[in-house]
Write a structure and sequence with these properties.
alpha+beta, single chain, Chloramphenicol Acetyltransferase, elongated, 4-stranded mixed sheet, 25% helix, 241 residues
């Protein structure tokens, strides 16, 4: 068993973000040959030479605008609700952005062939659920960037919103504390228990003494049976696998 990350430190209560029922459906319905992923292709002009190092640097500096792109799914302990999103303390943009040469003749059809090959490969669950592939050696000095997102990160429209925050001209965001505070097992159990009590109270028409949390913290659904190797939160807030 490998433990990643450090035990939580004292501080304000951590906001627990959980997968939604739709997210669970997409994770459990994923089958070999049909991954639940969407992709977009950005064709880059020939005005400026583009290399892998520059692309990694630009994307890395803009990830603070899309916090989910540096988070991974972690399975909660049995009875502690749905999987949660946690900052990945081992995040490395180099593991998510790579490059491949476009086959001859380097035209649009050849580039789309590369995209079709990339998008069919399931994403590893032990890291943030997105990759980007720089396609080089295209005709007329052009290049392309293939960005793929798992459906639990964004659907088609949501994916476009994510891309809009990564391209030139997008507003920049201040760098948040990273990695953020990690919830421990007790916090997850209390969060799940409170959500179940609120659901029970709502179904009986009563009033719950617990404040209503954001929708992402709801835990009315059981965790999926197909977790594809999602690691689990252990005592103290660390992650084991």
């Amino acid at each position: 068993m490998r433990t990643v990350g450090a035990p939580p430190t004292a501080g304000p209560r951590t906001v627990i973000e959980r997968t939604s029922p739709t997210d669970l459906m997409q994770l459990t319905c994923e089958v070999p040959g049909s991954p639940m992923q969407v992709a977009a292709v950005l064709v880059l002009g020939a005005a400026t030479a583009v290399d892998l190092t520059a692309v990694r640097d630009v994307i890395g500096r803009r990830l603070s605008s899309v916090l989910r792109l540096r988070q991974r799914l972690v399975r909660a302990p049995l009875g502690a609700g749905r999987p949660v999103w946690l900052d990945d303390p081992d995040f490395d943009v180099g593991r998510h952005v790579d490059a491949v040469a476009c086959p001859s003749p380097g035209d649009k059809t050849a580039m789309l062939g590369v995209a079709a090959d990339v998008v069919i490969h399931p994403l590893p669950i032990d890291r943030a659920l997105w990759p980007a592939t720089l396609v080089t050696d295209m005709a007329y000095g052009r290049a392309a960037l293939i960005v793929m997102l798992h459906h639990v990160l964004a659907d088609g429209i949501g994916g476009l919103a994510v891309l809009a925050r990564l391209v030139d001209g997008a507003p920049t965001a201040s760098e948040p504390e990273f990695p953020g505070h990690r919830p421990g097992r007790r916090a997850l159990f209390l969060d799940a228990s409170g959500a179940r009590l609120r659901a029970l109270t709502a179904s009986t028409g009563g009033n719950s003494p617990y404040p209503r949390p954001p929708a992402t913290t709801s835990t009315k659904q059981p965790r999926p049976t197909n977790t594809r190797g999602i690691p689990e939160v252990t005592a103290g807030g660390s992650v084991s696998r």
